[in-house]
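User: Could you go from structure to sequence for me? I need the amino acid at each position, not a summary. Structure tokens:
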């Protein structure tokens, strides 16, 4: 850590209504003497350097995701995920921010199966992934030693109140008595593990491309069984459907049952798989 060891980091989260942003602010509140955090929405605001003056770190999570891409909304991905991120980074640099952390996506690689390594070339397959990649590359181009850029490309994020594919698996776990027994591996990251990783990036003023993920790969069948168990239900598994599932090469099938992993780097072991599912499904906390 540079500078005074006792001075708190002043952190601005851009994306006030973001699931990850809200959870990070709550997570860092455990150390009020080390982090002073504020969240804002910049949509419709003038992105001047004054907006960012006095902050050490900007964490940019504003963006659009979890909506079906169409010809009509395709341009929004570029306006928000690319242009807004780039404009924010430029204003933050002008305002004297030392570290810019961008929430990017695994989608920049365009893969639904396989393993992604740090040297894997990005090849986005849709506007969401392409808009994220263009933002990553443009911000990297303006980074330097006084404006350090950390690009986070997490896999599927899950946790209490999350959206996305976790909810699809949860519906299966709570509604069907029988589920395919598939031996697959997927990189995922529990929200607290992601927040801990971001905290470490802030503490070390790290720069580069990162794959924040759980220390263990997730198995889809295991995950569904744990969700059911956490809700007091029992689900049986069978391999009878496996040949048909392997024969289907539909995108949704690959997303659920295919192997998609990052190489085992940038891992966080704070919450294991079983504990993370229990915490996600706990309706009393």
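Assistant: Here is the amino acid at each position, in order:
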């Amino acid at each position: 850590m540079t500078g005074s060891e006792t001075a708190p980091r002043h952190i601005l989260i851009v994306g006030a209504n973001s699931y990850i942003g809200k959870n990070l602010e709550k997570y860092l509140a455990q150390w009020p003497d080390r982090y002073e955090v504020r969240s804002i929405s910049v949509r419709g605001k003038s992105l001047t350097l004054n907006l960012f003056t006095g902050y050490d770190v900007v964490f940019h999570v504003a963006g659009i995701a979890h909506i079906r891409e169409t010809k009509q909304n395709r341009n929004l991905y570029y306006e928000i995920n690319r242009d807004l991120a780039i404009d924010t980074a430029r204003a933050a640099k002008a305002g004297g921010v030392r570290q810019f952390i961008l929430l990017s996506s695994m989608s920049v690689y365009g893969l639904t199966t396989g393993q992604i390594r740090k040297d894997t070339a990005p090849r986005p397959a849709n506007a969401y992934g392409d808009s994220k990649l263009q933002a990553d590359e443009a911000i990297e181009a303006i980074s330097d030693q006084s404006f350090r850029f950390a690009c986070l490309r997490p896999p599927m994020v899950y946790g209490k109140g999350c959206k996305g594919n976790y909810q699809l698996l949860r519906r299966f776990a709570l509604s069907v008595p029988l589920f395919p027994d598939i031996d697959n591996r997927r990189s995922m990251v529990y929200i607290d593990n992601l927040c801990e990783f971001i905290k470490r990036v802030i503490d070390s003023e790290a720069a580069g491309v990162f794959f924040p993920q759980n220390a263990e790969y997730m198995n889809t069948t295991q995950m569904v069984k744990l969700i059911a168990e956490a809700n007091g239900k029992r689900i049986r598994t069978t391999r009878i459907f496996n040949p048909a599932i392997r024969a289907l090469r539909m995108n949704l099938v690959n997303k659920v049952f295919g192997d998609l992993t990052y190489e085992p780097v940038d891992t966080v072991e704070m919450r294991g798989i079983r504990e993370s599912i229990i915490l996600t499904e706990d309706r009393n906390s």
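One structural detail worth keeping in mind: The CA atoms of residues 1 and 204 lie 6 Å apart.
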